[in-house]
Structures are given as structure tokens and as C-alpha cells.
């Protein structure tokens, strides 16, 4: 009990282990104790969910944590997210509208076997000097100026240890959130079930159609995170480095009750009705020894009232907030939280007063969650609308790559000047960005009544749209803080044009408005008649931009109205 660690991390999962590695890399002599309640090393394949990474988390793991070598040798490269939409005959995969990259992506990402990864990171962080105690369940924390005390139980015996900092990484155990009572409900009620199957599953084998197969190089579809989507749900197929496959169903209970999917047998019956080809291809794979596990999680979204405290504690990973796995963002949130936590800990250990930073980082993190909620809330009801989902997915990628990803890869989230300039006032560009996103997410809901067609036989690639391709490719570009702020402003202006272009197309189809309408993206709404004046004369009303319009036309499946005032 005499020793006072610099940091105790209760919870040695993805968040806790990555945080310890990040801290050790930044300050090799920092003393860290990780308490992990699980006794043994994790099994491969059938461990935790959270297997697909996207750009922000990939940058974090490869560049910030320097795990590039491990990831390339032991985990799979990922070929982006891939979507198959509603169709009239779901027995034929080739007839569905497919959205996903054709060619190998320049910016990498990975498919993670969580068991293999966590086992590697456990030994790696110990080789860097962190202490890890397995089978140690953190039971309580007492906060004190002279070192916080953590009591843990192991083999039926309680032990108390001390540290200057506590970083809670207990996942859904949420040690500190429960103790200090900052649980915050999240109004996004979606459920998930998932299971792992032995062996590789390549959806290229799900059809004999050679034209369809040859749209991509062999094995590229296999390496994607595949989503089969229709009203109220999506089904994932994810390949794992251990040569097994992860399958999941994520569903809004308003359309697909949890009770219809909460056992393996019920999930198969559900697949038979909703995704018959998946049923046909997956059911035989789960027979005998083929089914490795089956897990369920009801109402997985949760929020957090607090995140970082100047009293030297914080929460990272799922012990804080979690929204929705649609775009695989869980490890992004870990990367963001760990980077804020690391910055606070290092500054405090160096003797700096961190009270302002702790408050600013918490505000920035909570604002990020707030901005991202509308991406998911009530959106499962739109998943059977191909045109809306294509617009939405492109929009969601655009806002992700052009603002948070870029700020993260440029270390802008730990630069007070950058945060202040971008997010401090309601008129700051970052705050406008949040407003713009809310408006567009609402537009997708308003447009649903007009989007009635079922589309088939279409392949669409995010890189068909040049401005999206450019944003993805530029993610690793480095800017000085001033240039970063200017770049984000420039990107938000382009997002405004993208929003206006989508609105012109939707409004022309729904309300027969002309294609050369001036549009204020912050006033967009699809109410017949009344709203139009403020949309066309609002302070930000912009005329069509020929170049952007041309690019947005690529992802519009209906016939385009010709320009006429
Ligand atoms: C359906 C679904 C799909 C998802 N898909 C993705 C995806 O594709 N990509 C992605 O990035 N994210 C995804 N996520 C999110 C991802 O699962 C989480 O972000 C991630 O697992 C959280 O890691 P963590 O370390 O916070 O929690 P965990 O990985 O759960 O780790 C917490 C650790 O703390 C330990 N622990 C708990 N209580 C105590 C205690 N009291 N004392 C000591 N130890 C304790 C546990 O044993 C565990 O090892 C998904 C989430 C869901 C629900």
C-alpha cells in the first residue's frame, strides 16, 4: 500500500490496454497498474465484439500506439464498409444495390480479432513496464488529495492500492459512473445479437454470377465489413484474422422485437424471413462445432454525465458513452478519450494546472457525442430506403472524414487554441457543423414519405465522388494549427454545398421546386409551401455549385429534373 502509482486503470480491455500503451510511449517511466477481472488470456474469435476499425481508430492504433507491425502481421486488412440494400429478391445478392469501395483503399483500416489483439496488447504493455494483475476485480475507489485508493478482490481476498490518477476502463461495468452516479440515459433504443462461426466466409461465393464477382478483385469483398440492410435492421459479416467469422444482427425493436432474435435459434428463424440468403449460407456453418459463441445486448447505447475531472480521474471506452456500431465507431471514441486522458495525466504529472483543460476536453467530448446522436437516432426506420441510405452514408462519411478525423490526425483535439477557435461559441464553425448535421439528419426523415422506389442492380463506390475521395485520401495530411482551422472551415463550406445539392434534388422530386433554387443549408426542411421562403432567402442561401452538383448527381438514383425556374 506504500507505493503510489501514477495511474491505476481498472479494466484491461481495449480501452484500458491502449491507454496504458499510449501513456508508456509518451512517458516510459510512468508507473501504471492495470486491474483486469478476467482470470486468463482471452480466447481467439469468441471474445468481445468490436472487430471492425475505421480511419480515426486505425490512425490511433498504427501511428499513435505504433501497433502497425502487429496489425499487419496478425490482423486482417479491411476493405472498407460495404452495404447491400433492400431489394425485391433477397435470394440473389447480385440484384441488390451495393455500396462499397472497388479498389484497394489508400488509407488503411483493420478487422480485429479481439481475443488475439487483447492478448498481444496485454503482453506488450507489460513489456513496456506496466503492471497487470489478472483476476483482480476493482470493487471501490476512495478519492483523496494524497492518492486515490482502489480496493480490488482477487482469489477471495481484498487488497487496496493507491494512485495519483484513476482511469476507469471497466467497459459496461462502469465503475466510476455507478459510484459517482453520473449515469445519463441515451434515447436510442436499439438491440444487438452476435455470434462467431468457425472458418472463413467469403460472400463472393454466394453467387455464381461472374460479372458480379468480377466487379472487385477476389478477396476484397471478403475483407469488407459487410452490412445487409432493410427497414429497422442491419446484419453484419466480418472476417477475423483467426480465420473465423463474426455475424451480428442490430435491430430497432420498433420493427424487430428483441424477443425475435435473442437466441441463436430465433436469430436463424429471423434470418430466414428477413435475409434468406444469409440464412441459407450461414445456417450450415453453425452446425456441429461451427458455432463458437452467441451473445446478446439489449439497448446498448448509453451516455455519460461526466468524463474527465481535474481531481485526477476520468472514464475511457465504454465506461463512458457508446452510441451505435453502424459505422464501427467504438474504437474511435476510445482513441479520442484516451488521447484527452493521456494529455491531462502527462500535464498534471509535469506540474501543470489542468483544471481548464479538463473542463474543455469534457465539453468537447460531450459535444462530439451530442453531434453524433442524430446520425443514429430514429434512423433504423430509414434503412429500407435505398436512396435515403445512400445519401445518408455518403453524408455521414463526409462529415466524419472532413472534420473530426482531420482534427484528430492533426492533434487538434488537444490544442486549446484549435478547440477554442472551432467550438467555443455558438457561431464557431464547429458549432455550425453540429447544427448543419442535425438539419440534414432531420431532412432524411422528412424525405422518407417521398422515397418510394426500390432500386436494384446498381454498384456505387464512395470514390466515385471526387470530393469524398479527396477527403479520405487527405486524412493523414499534416497542418499547422492555423492551417488546420482554415482547412476545417473550407471543409464545412463544402459540406454546406453538399447539403444544399442533396436538398435541391429531394425537394425537386418531392415538391417540384426548381433545380436552380438558392438554398440556405441551415434552414432546410421539406414542409410543402411555408418553409421555402426562409430556405431560399436565409442568411446562408447559396446558388447551385455546378461542380458539386455534378458529383452529388452520381449518387442520385431517380431521374433528375432539368433546371427551370
Ligand atoms: C453490437 C456492438 C458492435 C460493435 N462493433 C464495433 C466495431 O465493429 N468496431 C468498434 O470499434 N467498436 C464496436 N463496438 C464497440 C466496442 O465493442 C467497444 O467500444 C469496446 O469493446 C469497448 O472497449 P472497453 O475497453 O471500453 O470495454 P471492454 O472491452 O468491455 O473492456 C472492459 C474490461 O474491463 C474488465 N472489467 C470490468 N469490470 C471490471 C472491474 N470492476 N475490475 C476490473 N476489471 C473489470 C472486463 O473484464 C473487460 O476486460 C461494438 C459494440 C456493440 C455493442
Could you write a compact summary of the structure shown?
The chain has 565 residues and is of the alpha/beta class. It has 3 domains: 1-75 and 112-182 and 308-375, FAD/NAD(P)-binding domain; 76-110 and 189-300, D-Amino Acid Oxidase, Chain A, domain 2 (2-Layer Sandwich), CATH 3.30.9; 387-565, no CATH class.
What order do the helices and strands come in, and which of them pair?
Layout: E1 4-10, H1 14-26, E2 32-36, H2 55-64, H3 68-74, E3 76-77, E4 81-84, E5 98-99, E6 110-111, H4 114-127, E7 131-134, E8 137-142, E9 148-154, E10 157-168, H5 175-180, E11 183-184, E12 191-197, H6 210-213, H7 220-223, E13 225-230, E14 233-239, E15 245-251, H8 264-274, H9 276-282, E16 291-297, E17 303-304, E18 308-309, E19 313-315, H10 330-349, H11 355-376, H12 386-409, H13 416-423, H14 429-447, E20 459-460, H15 466-473, H16 481-511, H17 532-537, H18 546-553
Parallel strand pairs: 1-2, 1-10, 2-7, 4-13, 5-20, 10-19
Antiparallel strand pairs: 3-6, 4-5, 8-9, 9-10, 11-17, 12-15, 12-16, 13-14, 14-15, 18-19
Helix pairs in contact: 1-4, 1-10, 2-10, 2-12, 8-9, 10-11, 11-14, 12-14, 12-16, 13-16, 14-16, 16-18
The structure holds flavin-adenine dinucleotide (FAD).
| Strand segment count | 20
Helix content: 25-40%
Heterogens: flavin-adenine dinucleotide
Distance between the termini: 78 Å
Q: Supply the number of helical segments.
A: 18
Q: Give the name of the CATH architecture of the largest domain.
A: 3-Layer(bba) Sandwich
Measured by DSSP, the beta-strand proportion falls in: 15-25%
Whole-number average pLDDT? 95
Outline: globular
- Largest beta-sheet characterization: 8 strands, mixed
Task: Indicate the low-confidence ranges by residue numbers.
Answer: none
Q: Over all CA atoms, what is the radius of gyration?
A: 24 Å
